[in-house]
Write a sequence for this structure.
């Protein structure tokens, strides 16, 4: 397999994590002999790369990345499958697959696949023999414009790292952010101006309405990005600056303790393809609140594992927060998003696609 991805080992973010999970799963598959990975970013150490996986040096610039992908397809094969980790790189991946005589596997993460793209990306997407989407919502939006048979497009959701489990609150984090004796709402996400759909504004407005009845309520916003100054200003304007903590970037190793120190995870996003942070919060035993109009429904299993609120009805978010604060933490149970299920599905899809490629030669 040739895997053309935006990032994987040695990079941060949800897409990089998804790619690592997929590559880890494929590295354990008896039907996969080797995976060659070309990414746009990330510099991995030798210990991060699993057996049977080779990650080539990253090529950040688009033209150099495209040339490198074509060169690998020509010289490093033969390949049975070309995996394209993002719709934005689908044209390069489709050409590489044709050069290699391989089947194209396209991965969809969310908002990038919801509306019809330009001509070349659309052409490339429709060359895929297999498409995997992280949620039903993304699958349905993609099939609204792509001329592919529905059975070609499968749902393969994110998985959750086993490090995320219930546990005691972290005294160090409570002291660091002055949270002792507080009821804590938590959101974990990038604070990007291009991603204001995450719903921080809605939670800050709900906090302003709730703080008179819940003076010990604090909203912890974890993450960094160019939208941070605006959110800080909004908190001041709403009179909740004293009830808000901006942590900045949180290291991956600190995330489990951050979730365990909170009372409720809330992210009423309207643009989630899935939302791995919901899985992490649920795995740590937190009550979870999301919006009901995007891919967030999947990690919450249509409301079985959390509350879904309707955007446009601000009072519903406030009610959901109060109800969640009254709920006890849940014990961790068996989850359909555990890695063993993800691993089995990844193996089954990859081997089936490789067998199709061999049958075509």
């Amino acid at each position: 397999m040739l895997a053309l991805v935006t990032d994987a080992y040695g990079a941060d973010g949800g897409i990089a994590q998804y790619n690592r999970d997929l590559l880890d799963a494929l590295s354990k598959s008896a039907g996969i002999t080797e995976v060659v990975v070309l990414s746009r970013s990330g510099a991995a150490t030798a210990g991060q790369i699993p057996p049977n996986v080779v990650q080539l040096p990253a090529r950040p610039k688009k033209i150099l990345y495209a040339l490198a992908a074509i060169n690998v397809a020509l010289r490093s094969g033969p390949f049975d499958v070309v995996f394209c980790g993002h719709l934005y790189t689908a044209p390069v991946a489709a050409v590489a697959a044709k050069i290699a005589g391989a089947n194209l596997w396209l991965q969809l993460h969310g908002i990038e696949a919801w509306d019809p793209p330009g001509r070349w990306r659309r052409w490339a997407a429709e060359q895929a023999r297999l498409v995997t989407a992280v949620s039903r919502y993304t699958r349905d939006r993609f099939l609204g414009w792509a001329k592919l048979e529905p059975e070609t497009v499968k749902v393969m959701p994110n998985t959750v790292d086993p490090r995320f489990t219930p546990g005691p609150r972290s005294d160090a984090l409570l002291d660091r952010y002055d949270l002792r004796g507080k009821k804590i709402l938590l959101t974990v996400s990038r604070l990007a101006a291009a991603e204001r759909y995450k719903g921080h504004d809605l939670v800050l407005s709900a906090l302003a309405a709730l703080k008179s009845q819940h003076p010990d309520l604090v909203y912890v916003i974890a993450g960094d990005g160019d939208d941070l100054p605006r959110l800080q200003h909004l908190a001041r304007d709403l009179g909740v600056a004293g009830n808000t903590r901006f942590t900045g970037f949180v290291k991956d190793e600190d995330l489990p303790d951050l979730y365990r120190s909170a009372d409720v995870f809330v992210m009423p996003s309207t643009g989630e393809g899935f939302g791995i942070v919901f899985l992490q919060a649920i795995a740590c035993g937190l009550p979870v609140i999301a919006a009901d109009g995007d891919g967030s429904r999947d990690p919450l299993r249509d409301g079985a594992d959390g509350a879904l609120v309707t955007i446009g009805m601000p009072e519903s978010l406030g009610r959901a927060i109060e109800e969640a604060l009254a709920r006890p933490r849940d014990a961790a149970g068996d989850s359909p998003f555990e890695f063993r299920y993800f691993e089995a599905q990844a193996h089954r899809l990859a081997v089936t696609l490789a067998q199709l490629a061999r049958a075509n030669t």
In short: The domain at 171-325 is CATH 3.40.50.2000 (Rossmann fold). The radius of gyration is 21 Å. The longest helix spans residues 339-359. The chain has a mean pLDDT of 93.
